[in-house]
Specification:
This protein is an alpha/beta fold. It has 5 helices and 5 strands, in the order βαβαβαβαβα. Strands 2-1-3-4-5 form a 5-stranded parallel beta sheet, sandwiched between helices. Strand 3, helix 3 and strand 4 form a beta-alpha-beta unit.
Length: about 140
């Protein structure tokens, strides 16, 4: 399966973000990084990533305002939320806002890579479905 997808990591923890970038680049992906939700939102519009990995707690703008901004937008990329927060209400709210996965830190890298693959598959299916939607007209 061809990887070479663009993934945006939005996290203020640069050590974690750099580690994720290294792993994802070894998988063949192009990786972009943002340090907060404001920068992340701008980068989504500028670069149109295939997937976003989004931290919940960041300075300036955290993950929830980003999710709220993209909720219901048909051109929004799939988003995986990562967080150290243990609260089940936070998870439920993130799912309501449309995350494809909610992963609690610390996590096994295999767990994240599986989630990334599911998110990229969902993105590919979403991009294909509008092409299939319009009915074909055949003149006979």
């Amino acid at each position: 399966m061809a990887n070479n997808k663009t993934i945006l990591i939005v996290d203020d923890d640069m050590e974690l973000s750099d580690g994720l970038r290294a792993v994802l680049e070894r998988q063949g992906h192009r990786v972009l990084q943002a340090r907060d939700g404001q920068q992340g939102k701008q980068m989504v519009y500028q670069h149109h990533p295939d997937l976003v990995i989004l931290d919940m707690m960041m300075p300036r703008m955290g993950g929830y305002p980003v999710l709220e901004h993209f909720k219901g937008k048909t051109d929004a990329p799939p988003i995986i939320m990562i967080t150290a927060n243990e609260g089940s209400r936070h998870k439920a709210y993130a799912e309501y806002l449309g995350v494809v996965d909610y992963i609690r830190k610390p996590f096994a890298m295999e767990r994240l890579l599986e989630s990334v693959q599911r998110g990229l598959t969902a993105a590919a299916e979403r991009k294909e479905s509008p092409k299939e939607s319009p009915p074909e007209t055949k003149d006979k």
